[in-house]
């Protein structure tokens, strides 16, 4: 889920002590995502002193530079691969469960989502086209 780029500190390993300092953490500083133009990703411009995404891109470039010209004692293996777009959790409304309770005249929906506000707005918009009343309850599985 998150990677951390380290520099200039120490950590003990089975082979000794290594230098580490967190300079960027996707978990702490936020993930880096592109915007899109003409259906193509546009990644943030790298900047050491920019916002979190720019800093992350800056450090990613530094890693790329190191891998392009590694120290003599590094083994860098390069391969090309392709994969389908994968999602670690089915968290989209098309993975919802729903049922209608005839006796209570209630429609029940359990909608997994990463954007509960968007789902709530969609339900409210759909409800606006109906004479029926609606009650929306949001919950989470996070503890």
Please explain how this structure is put together.
The protein is an alpha+beta fold. It is 23% helix and 20% strand. It has helices at residues 26-29, 52-68, 116-127, and strands at residues 4-6, 11-13, 16-18, 22-25, 35-37, 40-42, 97-101, 106-110. The protein has a two-stranded antiparallel sheet with strand order 1-4. The two termini are 18 Å apart.
Task: Supply the key terms.
disordered N terminus, 23% helix, two-stranded antiparallel ribbon, 143 residues, 2 domains, elongated, alpha+beta, 20% strand
Provide a short characterization of the protein structure:
The protein is of the alpha+beta class and 143 residues long.
Continuous helix count: 3
The percent of residues in helical segments reads: 10-25%
Uncertain runs with pLDDT below 50, 5 residues or more?
A: 1-11
SSE sequence, one letter per element: EEEEHEEHEEH
Q: Give the strand content.
A: 15-25%
Number-wise, the strands total 8
Spatial strand sequence of the major β-sheet: 1-4
Give the topology, please.
Elements lengths: L3 E3 L4 E3 L2 E3 L3 E4 H4 L5 E3 L2 E3 L9 H17 L28 E5 L4 E5 L5 H12 L16
Antiparallel strand pairs: 1-4, 2-3, 5-6, 7-8
